[in-house]
Design brief:
Structural class: mainly beta
Shape: globular
Radius of gyration: 19 Å
Order of helices and strands: EEEHEEEEEEEHEEEEEEH
Number of helices: 3
Length: 222
């Protein structure tokens, strides 16, 4: 921590070294502080490695006219991660993976983090904690593919906080159990559970985010 004009500010370090602090995040933070050169993958071109997470870089164009598209933002989307890692925090809540999007010149527009496994009680407690700090959330419904989910939104002066809970039935998950004693390989049991997605959107860019950013984990933004 350092002191600046009588106020304490957190020194931002690489997400690979210390969990990204989402609450009160300073949107003036440079992307290079979160994703320094040393986190670029030496194996996969166009990727960053944050502990077990692979973060893919993708430049997004407006797509208005084929052949004359204009780049409008850069997305950093998780391709794989480990539920054992803690890459972000909001208060006491811990998240296992991160995504973000920036303007073409590197200004951070939106941050997203994912809890791989949560439950309704943990979700309720988390939402109540944020409600106490920022006022009662607005609850809406979202839908993607065959998933229907609850969305909780808080409007702050300079940012929008949004939290989404999604039931993962593990329909597309292949689980394998190995019986070493009898040398058998069997299908493992499914374990339906909830995932939690938090989004921190800089209000300045909300018209460029809502209805526009909808790939990877960002599909659960709306």
């Amino acid at each position: 921590m350092i002191s600046c004009n009588g106020q304490e500010k957190r020194i931002v370090t690489s997400i690979a070294e210390e969990p990204l602090q989402l609450e009160n995040f300073d949107f003036n933070t440079k992307l290079s502080a979160l994703l320094p050169e040393k986190t670029k993958s030496k194996v996969y071109s166009g990727y960053y490695e944050l502990k077990s997470e692979l973060l893919k870089v993708d430049t997004i164009s407006d797509g208005e006219f084929i052949g004359s598209e204009k780049p409008v933002r850069i997305e950093y989307r998780q391709q794989s991660f480990s539920s054992q890692d803690i890459l972000a925090k909001f208060g006491n809540e811990e998240f296992n993976a991160v995504n973000l999007a920036t303007t073409i010149d590197g200004k951070i527009m939106v941050l997203n983090a994912l809890i791989d496994k949560t439950d309704l009680k943990q979700t309720k407690d988390f939402i109540e904690t944020i409600d106490k700090k920022y006022g009662k959330s607005a609850k809406t419904k979202g839908e993607f593919s065959d998933k229907n989910y609850d969305i909780f939104t808080w409007q702050l002066k300079d940012r929008i906080i949004r939290y989404t809970t999604v039931l993962d039935k593990e329909e597309n998950t292949l689980k394998i159990e190995i019986d070493e004693e009898n040398k058998k390989i069997m299908n493992g049991d499914k374990n339906p559970h909830y995932k939690g997605y938090i989004f921190i959107i800089k209000k300045e860019y909300k018209s460029q985010i809502f209805g526009k950013v909808s790939s990877g984990d960002f599909v659960f933004l709306e």
